[in-house]
Amino acid sequence: MNRYEIEKLYKSKLKELQHHDKLYHQESEPIISDADYDRLKHEIIKIEKENKFLKSEISPSKKVGYKPSKSFAKYTHKARMLSLSNAFDKADLENFEKKILNYLNTKINLEYSVEPKIDGISASLTYINNKLEIGVSRGDGLVGEIITDNLKTIKDIPQKIESKDFPENIEIRGEVFITKKNFSKLKDKFANARNAASGSLRQKDSNETKKIPLNFVAYTYGYIKKNNFNSQSEFLFKLKKWGFKINKENKIKKSIEELLEFHKKFELKRFSLDYDVDGLVYKVNDISLQNRLGYTSNSPRWAIAHKFSADSSYTKILNIEIQIGRTGALTPVAKVQKVNIGGVLVSNATLHNEDEIVRKDIRIGDVVKIERAGDVIPHVIEVDITKRKKNLKKFAFPLKCPSCGSKTIKEYNQTTKKYDAVRRCTNESYDCEKIAIEKLKHFISKDALNIDGLGKKVIEKFWELHLIKKPQDIFNLNYDKIEKLDGWGKLSTNNLKSSIQVSKNTSLQKLIYSLGIRHIGIENAKLISENVKSLKSFIDIISNDKINKLLNIDGIGQTQINSLKNFFSDKTNIKVLLDLDKILNINLQTVNKNGVLKDKTFMFTGKLEGISRAEAKSLIEKNSGTTLSSVSKNLDFVVIGQKPTKRKIDQAKALGVQIISQNELKKLID
Ligand code: IVH
């Protein structure tokens, strides 16, 4: 190679590295493995060493690299690491409590453990026989990465527990974070304290982790062999006794009023604390109630995060753009003059929907108040009408889809007798470019096929380059072309290839969810997949006009059925599924299939005593049974409570379905 060629190669590699740095630090969406990143860095340094004339300010030889530099081994959490749902005001909290009391079918006064929600990175520590054996990051909640050595550098994490009453096998969970004081020394290297903690935790060499001082507070447990406490507050007390750090601000509160009062005080106090807090976590204190309440698909029913009210600021609307979502919803977004709100530079704010613009009369050129709370998207609160220029015109919401030109509509809701606030593109298919791209982004997302190397930005790029137009194209990519693209190379391409390969092994639930059907979220996809059992029978149902059969699933209503019908009335959507069927390996469901109610189906009629329907249903599911919503020959048992529907009992009798009381159900389970 001559001097010119060497320089060209050097520059292209630097550019590739810069691209990955950006994906990692700004977008949090790395597309190559840590090992590959490391290799690329070393290649650059090697070229530099061999060619002394090469120099660059952005060379990795000049920078202290905080890019993680190791592919960590994976670990399946023994108990899933879930997230929390959010509350913002009194109404949200009242609703949270109401749902709990309904579920428990009782009217007791609840007691809550209140804990600051530190904005850091959660970690799970497995102790076996009093010794820290494995330390893991959250990952996608099911599978995390083993970062034991790095976690061991944190002085707040005990490696050996002396106490006699420490459980023999337990996953202790808590938050890894960096104090504001320590972060101030690292300010130019990371966007915020959370990124700094995350970067430090993912170092290849734990000596590097040691250099960035991290802290740890413990607040919950995952798997536990045998618990010896009855409440969250007692658990926290034990954690402290066992040698863990717990938050000094933890409290017990006995009513929503007390929670609100504490929240109000703490909202001001947080500024004097040496760590970032983005809300308070409220947990039902009684562990036996927690166990009864259990979990929805992604969060516990017994806990909620009460976020702090937002920081706000005034700025000017430069433009209003319309974004189109996966299900065709047209969402107006205000492009605003950049403004710093609570330490974050904001240039976009959501305007929610057409009605919101009309109600607040928001116009391009207006000065508006914008709020931002934690990780929630900033939104426009109100217009400062005193600053409005005379000639500003009302915003004309587009009546045609800005992406494909199709008609847009506001749906009429039969139950509320009102038109929807959201306007939608009627073309819920892959012909509308924006919808198609959003569908693809959904397809690869964490809870769907979870394709590591394919971030949102990559999807957009590959769409533009005609590499991916439909989900099935992902499995038939032109890797030669990709390798030659700006910012890509052999390493990143190979990496992408293998993460796509891995993603082919998936479950029916994830596949149904990944299609992005309106009203079919994770929970409904799970219900459907458990009912239909195989992809073959799902395909049979949707392509042979049998979707109504799914109405029998307890939890699936007319809204979901209509949405499924609408979705699969489009031939392309069926074709996508048929093609995916040929490509993917669908694993059989691995839920507990061996409970005492295995293969048995139940239906309720009448009011149950001392337990809600929802709890009874999840009790049946925990024991591998299924609940249906109507009488059919597939039904094994009808469980009757008070004032049952006579028609249902008659139907059951006619079909020879066994009729049992609530007590008899209890006996079956016990
Ligand atoms: S309990 C299933 N307690 O918040 C229960 N979480 O959105 C979830 N967090 O990933 C964990 N402080 O990183 C719990 N006192 C606290 C917490 C806390 C911060 C974080 C944690 C979790 C996220 C949930």
Summarize the structure in words:
The chain has 670 residues and is of the alpha+beta class. Among the domains are: 74-307, D-amino Acid Aminotransferase, Chain A, domain 1; 433-503, DNA polymerase, domain 1 (Orthogonal Bundle); 508-586, 5' to 3' exonuclease, C-terminal subdomain (DNA polymerase, domain 1), CATH 1.10.150; 601-669, Rossmann fold, CATH 3.40.50. Helices cover 36% and strands 21% of the residues. It is built from 23 helices and 26 strands. It has a five-stranded mixed sheet. Strands 14-13-12-15-16 form a five-stranded antiparallel sheet. A hairpin with a 2-residue loop joins strand 4 and strand 5 (131-137). Helix 12 (433-444) crosses helix 13 (456-464). It starts with a helix and ends with a helix. Mean pLDDT is 90; it is low at 64-70. The protein binds 2-(butylsulfanyl)adenosine. 2-(butylsulfanyl)adenosine binds at residues 82-84, 115, 117-118, 122, 175, 219-220, 281, 300, 303, 305.
